[in-house]
Structures are given as structure tokens and as C-alpha cells.
Amino acid sequence: MITVDALSALPGIGHGFFPRTGGVSEGIFASRNCGFGSGDRREAVTENRDRCRRELGPAEALLTVHQVHSPRVATVTGPWTPETAPQADAMVTDRPGLALGILTADCAPILFADAEAGVVGAAHAGWKGALSGVIEATIEAMRALGAVPERITAAIGPCIGPGSYEVGPEFRDRFLAEDPDSARFFHSPAAGNGAEARPHFDLPGYVAERLRRAGLRQVAVSGLDTLAREDLFFSYRRTTLRKEPDYGRQISAILLTG
User: Fold this and answer.
1) I need a surface site. Which of 21, 185, 202, 216 has the fewest CB within 10 A?
2) Angle at the Cα of 11 (from 57 to 14), degrees rounded to 5?
3) How many Å apart are CA 4 and CA 2, to the nearest integer?
């Protein structure tokens, strides 16, 4: 389990960014695949999630949503089953023991906590969700439960890094149309013979900037690249490049411990 000091220092908060290691899945899903949406055996995914829940601490349940790359946020008041999970890309709660889990395989998982208010949140920030406002919507939902943005600590977990995230010019144009200052999150490495390669996007840098603009003062970034670290993480981009039929998902989670 990977942790960040900024969240570990907060009283009453448990969190973890779980790598792909330490589970029971096999083949392309080896070994801690936590995604029911994959083609993995359901009993293997269930055991992998249970292992994460037990490592987190006193968690009554480890909950995930049906992620749809949106700015939707679910306010959690009690447990649900995978079949009844709402469609959303973020969750917030003020109830101890309910672990909020985000599934990723290159997108950025963000864990939030205002320990003084006793409010936590978790968000799935791929480029589409980040651009459409899932970060700001999560902070607003936490505020509705009593959190104060200036007190919220946020940690961005392992995701595809700027050295790995090659995109097309039309992708860059979407961000520049929304905010010309977003140009600083794109770079084009030399392709040889003086030419420039396709642009690369700094997803964690972009997410961190939106968190800061939303009023957060404490933002931590793991710096771990899911595409580059096959030993630790699943990656949708890696699967696509290899033309593999499916891929696993790692989970990141946070909870109030009491």
C-alpha cells in the first residue's frame, strides 16, 4: 500500500494507493485487480478488494461507483453493492468506516480530507473529468458537509506521467479553448532531424493546478507513472499499445477511522 505523508499526518484518516501486487488474480489481471468491470473472475476481484479494505483499517465497506468520466459526485451515507452503485466519478462522506474507492488504470485518483471537519472525498480524474470539473464538484460536495477548502489536503496518486502521455493536437486544442494558460501542461519532445513529436500532456500537473485554483493549500503528488511502472500498476495505454484484450484496475481509497 502506497501512502503520502500529507494524508498520513492527519488524525482519524486512513488512506492508501494500492498497486497491482499482493492479490490473487492471474494472467493479464495479475495480481490485485480490483475492477469488477474487467473480465477477471468475480471471486478474485472480491478477494482483492477485501485485502485492500483490511489493509486500510477499520472499514465497514469499501465502496466504488460506476465511473463514467463525468463531474458527478455521490454523497455517501451508507454502503451499497457493486450492482447498485451510482454513476459518478467522485464520492464524499462524513460517515466513519465507509471507505471511498476510486478505480484507475492511467487516470488520476485524488484523495481528499478535511480532518477537522471529519469529511473525506475521492475522485477519478481522467482528462475528461478534470476538464469538465470533477475536482471542483468534489470540493463543493465536501463543503456542503462542512469542509473548508483551505483546510482540505489532497493527494494525487499514481497515474500516467507527462513523459508517457502522448496525445494529438486536437486533444491539446480542447484544453487551450477552455484556458489558453493550459499550454504549459503540454510539451513536444524532439522527434529527430529537428522535428517535434506529438504533444505530451502533464495530467498530474494539470490536476494539481486545478486543485490549487479551487483554494486547496496542501496538494501532494505521488509522481508515479502507471505506464512506465508495469511492475506496480495496470495501464490502459499499455494494454492499448500491446493490443491486449483487457486490463486490470488498481484502487485508491480513503476513510474516516473514527
Assistant:
1) 21
2) 25
3) 7
